[in-house]
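User: Hello! I'm new to structural biology and keep hearing that structure can be predicted from sequence alone. Could you demonstrate with YheO domain protein? Please show me the input and the output so I can see what each looks like.

Assistant: Of course. The first part below is the input, the amino acid sequence of YheO domain protein. The second part is the output, the predicted structure written as tokens.
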Amino acid sequence: MSPVIYRSFIAEYTNEDREFLNSYFRLAETIADFIGPHCEVVIHSFESLEKSVVKIVNGHHTGRKVGSPITDVGLKMLREFEQSGEVTPKCYFTNSKDGDQLKSTTCVLAGKNNKPVGLFCINMNLSHPFPEIIKTLMPDVATRTGIVSENFSSNATDVIEQALKHAIQKIENDQSVNLKSKNKQITKVLLENGLFELKDATAMVANRLGITRHAIYKYIREFKS
């Protein structure tokens, strides 16, 4: 990229642009954690192309860190975006400087008025033994590490019913909870899990437990205080 274009990016870059990029930092960490240690996630800023990397997770795969420069592919995508205003992300294969094969994808992050602000990149290292990669994608059945019960539903009613079912089972299996306080403890579990953020939850829980909504509200007030 020419120095003239580079200087214009620095002059135009704003705090709003920086905040926009920062909002993707947590997403980068989430994706890297989801895919596993063989996945590198990078965020580039167009504020300084020589020091464009502002966030990187698992950077050891490409030997980069915060402050590393933009890549040639990144420069090409920026130029294409400037010319067309659109770049459809596509996966591609490449190699790191150590010879590891990577499956990668890169997309332009466009801020206000479709202004190109940076790049979001994902690199999966395919050079590690495949069983090792697969192992990081599977739950540890022996210790049940990472195994969580989650209800995927198309309607809120089913989410409430399933959450209530699990809460009831949890409390009924807890020998330390006496019969008199079961409804209160079930309500506590649901409150801690955020279920009462759903508008029909209070009525459904009250009906299922055979108590009034006022009783539910009373329990919630007690727990919050």
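User: So the tokens describe the shape?

Assistant: Right, they're a compact way of writing down the 3D structure. Reading them back into a model, for example: The chain has nine helices and five strands.
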